[in-house]
Amino acid sequence: MSEEFTPTVRKVVEVIRTRISEGSYSVGDFLPPESDLAAELRVSRGSVRAAIEALVDSREVDKARHSRPIVSAPVGRYNASEKTDVHVWVAQTIRDDTSVPFLQGISHELAGTSLRMVVHEPTYFVENIVQADERKFLIELLDRPNVAGAIVWRDVYAEDSDAVAPLLKKGIPIVFVDAPAPGGLQTDFVGTMNVAAAKRCVKYLLDQGHRRIVCVSDTDIPSPISDRIKGYWRGMRQAGLDAPGSTLFAKCVIPSAKSSDDVWSDPLGGVYARSLNKDCFYSDLAHRIVVELLEIDPLPTALFVTYDILACWIWAVLEGRGISVPDQISIVGFDWRAQWDKGLEDALDTAAQDFEGFGRHAVELLLDRISGEAPASTRQVLLDAPLVVRSSTATPRLLRPGQALVATVPGEEALDT
Questions:
Q1: Which of 67, 230, 290, 312 holds its CA 20 to 30 A away from the CA of 28?
Q2: Which strand (E) or helix (H) includes residue 308?
Q3: So what's the pLDDT on residue 29?
Q4: Directed axis angle between helix 45-57 and helix 7-22, to 10°?
Q5: What are phi and psi of 400, to 5 degrees?
């Protein structure tokens, strides 16, 4: 008899199963390390490992590569193949320039199937209302007729794990896009290779000769954005620019507050001066960021900004203050929003997210679940975000007005003062 069926392994399985049923290990919790369980239960680590594999096979526990096992939501018997409706939640307006290609991708992949797309969006686009409507959508989905599955582009700040868990328990297939399911719940997921794409942006600036590269982000940092910041730090670290004692620097500028009482009357400049809404949240945010950037001495030669709208605003505020982009400061963004938003000038160097691919791949994962062809373990599809070069970067020439960069040995800089 193989080890997975030995009395010792069965004992470990039953202990873990009992703790899950009694709530000692809740849905979304990591199991204790194998070594801790082995010591506590006085069994070998091999027996613990075999027990965990048995629980993974029964879908009571989920285990991603290089991570500790996590308690899964129990899956009920649900025959999705007899249903007709794929419900889609989009936390922003469906008219948004990123929502449109996403929905087009879903529609394209559903063509020729017996399934139809049912799209939901918030009633009002105010943070607390968006989150309340998202929760209502998830709760109502549990009792809707003909639900074949759901694709969720959620509000990354919402904590709806208690609303998602009953859906998983019932066995309704769900695919999350852009940000994983809340609370560590294990579902199929389609996202972006944010870390790798951010590192590529940093490397591009380094290859141009930049060394004083600052990362810029918003005050709120959800998982996609935090991964981009992580990619920036990894890129700078690999170049030796955040080493202790380094005369060069890696910095991340994040304003300390979401809004302020300041009224900014500075003019905007550059290619985005006319296309930006002067009354929006990003105006205040970008002005405060630029104030902090211009206090850095010497001035950074390049910025990696974690999303495009903020990058466009920073560009406009810098130009309004007489700082030329890219002559004095180069900027790289993330999204390639101008590909979808025809009101924006396509002038920003940026990592191009595949919003249509979000929809297409989400449907592919969902169809596998509906047909019963998917494996028991959850799957993750990460799409590349290749760098699109336009006109917002150049070889560094000025660290601050009046200071020219002169050639030195590779990896070092000097100033002609």
A1: 230
A2: helix 308-320
A3: 81
A4: 60
A5: -160, 160
Pick left, alpha or beta for residue 178 (phi over 0 → left; psi -120 to 50 → alpha; otherwise beta): left
d(CA 364, CA 381) in angstroms, rounded, equals 10
Closest CA to 235 of 347, 332, 357, 336: 332
Read off φ and ψ for residue 387, nearest 5 degrees: -75, 130
Backbone phi and psi for residue 132, each to the nearest 5 degrees, phi listed first: -65, -40
Q: Are strands 61-62 and 70-71 parallel, antiparallel or unpaired?
A: antiparallel
Residues 6 or more apart in contact with residue 80 via CB below 8 angstroms = 147, 148, 149, 171, 172, 173, 369, 370
Length of the chain equals: 417
**Nearest one of 320, 310, 351, 315 to 330, comparing CA atoms:** 315
Query: Do 351 and 229 touch, CB atoms closer than 8 A?
Result: no
Q: Which residue in 216, 202, 327 sits closest to 270, CA to CA?
A: 327
Q: Tell me the pTM.
A: 0.80
Distance, CA of 92 to CA of 94 (rounded, Å): 6
| Pick from 72, 71, 85: nearest CA to 114 | 85
The tokens 């950037």 sit on which residue? 293
Structure confidence at residue 75 as a pLDDT band (50, 70, 90): low
Q: What is the pLDDT of residue 22?
A: 83
Tokens matching residue 386? 């290749």
**H helices within 5-74, ranges in order?**
7-22, 34-41, 45-57
pLDDT per position as a tens digit, 269-324: 999 998 887 767 888 889 999 999 999 888 899 999 999 999 999 999 999 999 99
Over range 72-86, report the average pLDDT.
81
- Largest distance between two CA atoms of the chain: 79
Q: Helix, strand, or coil here: 192?
A: strand
Structure tokens at 195: 């870390």
Question: How many other C-beta atoms lie within 10 A of the C-beta of residue 100?
Answer: 17
CA–CA separation, 284 vs 276, rounded Å? 13
